[in-house]
Structure formats: C-alpha cells, structure tokens
Write a structure and sequence with these properties.
- This protein has a single domain, classed as Glutaredoxin (3-Layer(aba) Sandwich).
- The protein is 50% helix and 12% strand.
- The protein has nine helices and six strands; from the N terminus they run βαββααβαααααββα.
- The two termini are 31 Å apart.
Length: 220
C-alpha cells in the first residue's frame, strides 16, 4: 500500500462533462485498488456572470448560443455517452440556469465523507430532475437527502458565510491555469483535463505512485 495522496477535482455542478468525469473517476479508482486516495471537490464556475437568482434557461441558452437549437446535438451526444456511464440526462427538464456559488458552499459544508454524496445529489437534481440548484430551499432538500441538517444549512445559505472563501478558491483555479472542467489534479503534480477515460486517469495516478516510490537522488 502506498502513502495516501489527493485528487482535487475542480468542477462545476452545472457542467455535464463534470458529471461524466465523476463517473469515470470512480471507475479509475477501481483500476488502482491498492492506492490510498483522498478525493477532494474544488469549486469552479462556468459562468460567474449569472445573477444570484439565476436566469431562465431558454433565455440563457439563446443569449449564449444564439438560438436554443444550437446545443441540441451536443445534448443528444451527451445523453448517449451518459447512458454508458449510468447517467440518464434530461436536459429538457432544466428550466433555470443557476448561479452555483451557493451549491459550492453546500459542498464545502458537507465536509469529509459527505462531499461526494452531496456532489452526486446535486448533479442528479440538476441534470436528471431538472431542479433549480441555485434555490436555497432546493439546496436544503438536497442536503437532507444525503443525511445533512437541511434546515440548518438552508439558514446558513441566507448569510454570506464562506462566500468569499469559495470565490477565492475559484479565482485560484483560474490562477493556476484551470480554464475548463473537470480538471483532476492528481497528487498535486499532474493535471488531467476533461472527462478523460478511466484508464487515462488511472495512468496519471500510477505515475504519481511511481514517482513517490522512487528514492530521492542524492545532492552532489
């Protein structure tokens, strides 16, 4: 058994490729069962200009892409790929594009051991159920679904607690060169960009393991 190391997953909960990336990371971890790994979820915002209350989904798509139909082929392709990863995307159910700062605050508060199920529940709420994960009531319900104190967390969301910290983490991701997500930072050494195959992620993990196991070169 090697020493434990981390995989920092920089992602946004409204990024469909991040949902795919999460599934592929899970499969990658099964390819390296003897490696002790701590997965940490780091915030990112695909569009920080979305107002706190969110925006009508159709209006947002038309503003960004011109006409709503321009994203249909991409959604169809994602739906096909999603089936292979156990994700039943329902883009047609999404009625609102949310600002995700509060969702990221919820993930932060979930803490070790509860981050992953919280992230999974948020992805499912948005991409499969079409729920508004910028709404505090919805976020409180999501928290309750994974065994957290939803009422307490919903009240915390009404404050600015940890907002600046999450914003700073997002800014730091940009500063180190993360311009697209998902981004898997493996062992603090290698960055795997995009929803790569489980094998590619596992290779990056193994590369870090190999480096850690090699004896240090004596200084002259």
């Amino acid at each position: 058994m090697t020493d434990a190391f981390t995989i920092d997953v920089v992602s946004d909960v409204v990024c469909p490729w991040c949902y795919l990336g999460k599934r592929r990371l899970e499969r990658a971890l099964t390819l390296v069962p003897d490696v002790a790994i701590e997965v940490r979820w780091r915030p990112f915002q695909l569009d920080p200009t979305i107002p706190p209350e969110g925006i009508d989904r159709r209006a947002y798509i038309e503003k960004k892409f011109g006409i709503a139909g321009t994203v249909t082929p991409m959604h169809e392709r994602l739906a096909e790929v999603g089936i292979d990863e156990g994700i039943d995307y329902h883009f047609e159910r999404i009625k609102r594009s949310p600002n995700t700062i509060d969702a990221h605050r919820l993930i932060r508060w979930a803490g070790p051991g509860q981050e992953e199920p919280t992230v999974e529940r948020l992805f499912r709420a948005y991409f499969i159920e079409g729920r508004d994960i910028g709404d505090h009531t919805v976020l409180g319900e999501v928290a309750g679904d994974v065994g957290l104190d939803g009422d307490s967390l919903e009240k915390r969301l009404s404050t600015d607690e940890d907002r600046s910290i999450v914003e700073q983490e997002i800014a730091e991701a940009y500063r180190i060169g993360v311009t697209g997500v998902p981004c898997f930072i493996v062992g603090g050494r290698y960055a795997v960009m995009g929803a790569q195959s489980p094998e590619t992620i596992a290779e990056a993990i193994q590369a870090v393991v190999t480096e850690q196991s090699e004896p240090a070169t004596p200084a002259n």
